[in-house]
Amino acid sequence: MSSSIASLEPPVAAPAGSQQRMNIVIVGHVDHGKSTIIGRLLADTHSLPDGKLEQVRAQCELNSKPFEYAFLLDALKDEQAQGITIDAARVFFKTAQRHYLILDAPGHIEFLKNMITGAARAEAALLVIDAAEGVQENSRRHGYMISMLGVRQLAVVVNKMDLVGWDRGVYDRIVSEYGAFLDQVGTRPSAFIPVSGRGGDNIADRSEHLAWYEGPTVLGALDAFRSEPAPIHRPFRMAVQDVYKFTKQGDDRRIVAGTIDSGTVRVGDSVIFYPSGKKSRVRSIEAFNRPPQDSAEAGSAVGFTLQEQIYITRGEMATLETEPRPQVTTRLRVSLFWLGKDPMIKRKEYLLKLGTGRVTARLEDVLRVMDASTLDTAEQRAAVQRHDVAECVLKLDRAIACDLATDVPATSRFVIVDDFEIRGGGIVREALPDRQAAVRDRVILRNYKWEPSIIEPERRAEKYNQKAALILVTGEHEADRKSVAKALEGKLFEDGKVVYFLGIGSVLYGIDADIERKPENRLEHMRRLAEVANLMLDAGIILVVAAAELTQDDLDVIKASVQPDWIETIWAGDAITTDLAVDLQLPGGAVPEAVDRLKAHLQDKGIIFRPW
C-alpha cells in the first residue's frame, strides 16, 4: 500500500485498466490528520482490498486500541511506532470520475525533505489544517513549497471540526489567515473544506453538522481538479538514464534509454545531446515487450537507437535540433529550500542532482533569503539557514543542461545532497554567463559538425587494454613535474600502453604560435590545448601533459572541451599553490616512487587495468 520515494523521478505507471489518473500530494503539519483523511478516502470510495477494513478493526480490538482510519495507511513499522508519517506513501483509490494516486508527504519537520519529492510529482494538492490547532509554521512552509514547485491546484482541508464543536467562526478565522498567506505566495485554493476525518463528515458525503458550509466535499474538490495533459507540446526533453549494448546473436544495437519529460520524438528526428552538443538521428524507437513504434511522447520510458554512433553518457539531455535548446552553463540562479541541520555555506562542496545529471556544486552567492513561514526577507546573507528559502547563485564544477522553471518545469527541478542525504531542493530561475561560455559554444558547434570514426571508443579501449585519459601533471614552476610526466609515459609505454607525453611548450610554440603569451590570452591557450587533447583522446590515447601551476579556471576551460570523466589532475610538489581541485598530490621526492603512485592511481580509476 506504500513505498518509498527518494528522488525527483517521473510519475509511475497508471493502474491497469485506468482511463485517467491524477497525482495528488497531501501535506500538513504533524498530527493534523492527513493519514486519517487518506484512510477515510480509501474506505469511502471502496478502494480497500476485500476484508481489509474488518481486518484492521479486528486487530485494534485484539490489541485493545480504538480503531482509527489512519491505521489503514500505517504500513510502515516506524510509522506505527512513532505515530507520525516518516516516508512518502503512494496510495491508489478511485471515484467515478478518475483514478487517483495520492502521495502522502510527511508533515513532521524532520521529514520535510520528502515533501519536496512528493509535491514535485503532483498535479494538485490537499493541505490539511487542524481546526483546533490552527495554522502552524509547517502549514505555511508546505504552502510555500507547493507554490514554488509549481503545483497550482490546491484545496485546503480544515480537519477535526468535531473538536471545535463545528464552530463556523473557527473555520472562518483559518480561511482568513491562511488564505491571506497563500495569496502572498501566489496560490489561490479552489476551496477550504471543513471536515471531520474521524467521522467522515464532508469527505465523501455532506455532513448535517456542517449545514452552514455550501462548498464541495473532499471528493468533490478532487473530481473538480483538471487533469493536466502530458506536456507533449513543450520542447522534447529526455534525460539519458543509460546506454545499453547487446552482443548476443549478432545484436549490435546501442539503445539510449530514459524517460521523456516533455515533447515528442519520432523516428528520423535529428537529436542533439547537451551539454556535449553531439548530434545524431533516431533510427528506431525501442520499448520492452511492446510492438515497434514510430514515436514516443512525454511520460514514456523508452529507448532509441541512433543512425550515427556517438559517445554519450548518463546525465546528457536529449533534445530535438528543430526546437529551442536547453540552458547549458556552470552558473545557475536558483530558488532553493534548505532543509539541512547545518547551514548551506560558501566554499563547501555539495552534490546537485538534476534529472540524471550529477555535478559538484558550491554556493557562490546568496542574493536574498526568505523565511518560508513568515515571508520575511533579508538581503545578502553569507549562508542559507535551515528552513530558509533562498535566491542564490550556484557554481558547478562542470556544465549541466537544464531549463528554466518558466519554460520546462520538469527539467528545472533539482535536489542538493550533502553527506548522502537530501538537504535541499529547488528550481532553476536563470542560467548565468560563465567564463567558459564562448569556449562551450565552439565545442557545441564542433560536436555538431564532428565526423565520428567507424571505430567505437569501446573497441579501441578493448584493443589497447586501456581507457583514453588526459593526465594533467602540474605543480609549482620549480617542481619536477616534467620528469614525472615523462617517466610515466616511459613506464606505460614499456607496459604496452598507447601513451604520449605533451609538454606545454609544444603547444605554445606550435599551434599557439600566432598568439602572444599574455594573461588575457590564457583562456585561448587552454582552449587550444584542450582541442589537441580531445583529438588524441578520441584516438584512444593516454595523453600526459605537463604544465606549471594550472588553476581551477584553466581546468574548467579544459573540461568545456574534453569529457570531464576523462581528466585526471595531478599536483607534483609538497604544497598546492593554486585553487585547483586535484585528484592526486605527489609530494616532492624521488621520481620513480612518484610514478609508481601515479600508476597505481590510474589502475584504481580503471584507466589502465591491473594484471590478473
**CATH fold field value of the largest domain:** Rossmann fold
Order of strands, main sheet, comes to: 2-3-1-4-5-6
Residue fraction in strands = 25-35%
CATH architecture annotation name of the largest domain: 3-Layer(aba) Sandwich
Please state the average pLDDT score. Answer: 85
Distance between the termini: 49 Å
Main β-sheet: number of strands, strand sense, barrel status? 6 strands, mixed
C-alpha geometry = elongated
> Low-confidence runs (pLDDT<50, min 5 residues)?
1-18, 75-88, 107-112
Looking at CATH, the homologous superfamily of the largest domain is P-loop containing nucleotide triphosphate hydrolases
Write the layout of secondary structure elements.
Blueprint lengths: L20 E8 L5 H11 L7 H11 L14 H6 L6 E6 L4 E6 L7 H9 L3 E7 L6 H12 L4 E7 L8 H17 L6 E4 L23 H7 L12 E9 L8 E9 L1 E3 L3 E5 L3 E9 L8 E3 L3 E6 L10 E4 L6 E12 L5 E2 L4 E5 L2 E15 L5 E3 L3 E2 L3 E15 L10 E6 L2 E12 L4 H13 L7 H8 L4 E7 L5 H14 L4 E5 H5 L13 H17 L3 E5 L5 H10 L5 E6 L11 E3 L4 H14 L8
Parallel strand pairs: 1-3, 1-4, 4-5, 5-6, 24-26, 24-27, 25-26, 27-28
Antiparallel strand pairs: 2-3, 7-8, 7-14, 8-13, 9-12, 10-11, 10-14, 11-13, 15-21, 15-23, 16-20, 17-18, 17-22, 18-19, 18-21, 22-23
Helix pairs in contact: 10-14, 12-13
